[in-house]
Amino acid sequence: MATFAIYIAQSLDGFIAADDGSVEWLDHFSSFDYGFDQFLDGVGTLVMGRRTYDQILTFGEWPYGQHPAVVVTSKPLHAMPGANVRAHHGDLKELVASLSARDELVWIVGGAELIAGMIAAGAAPRLELHIMPILMGSGVPLWKPHATRGRYRLVRKSAYDNGVVSLNYVPMEQP
Question: Which of 34, 41, 4 is CA-nearest to residue 131?
């Protein structure tokens, strides 16, 4: 059975991207990987929304090696050279069900709309939140309203010399 995970950075005020969707604000914090390389080594499949995918295309090269990626989109998808990418045009519940049948870690890369949709569709992800010590004032918020609620238990916390704090949560059993 698959494990779903969200590994994501956010500002102190809860934003994952600037108003225009850019993530250049993270460049100041990029000198350390905050466990990213180890996390990515354990990932089987990535799931991302179309806006996240389009943002990644601006990076110049595909940063996830040969990890297969599913892009949730309603539009035709043009794969980046070197990327193992396919489009998913259907229902998120169907996607969650098909991925759940696998014995792997599924990374819900983003964005916020997809994260809310995946949770509402039944994915109960573990959360690896990296809080960056910056107030953005506005931008794309991490958490969108969604129909499903859940409780989480903190399993690990780490603080770094540059002010970044990592909080790792796992879902609590639902009564």
Answer: 34
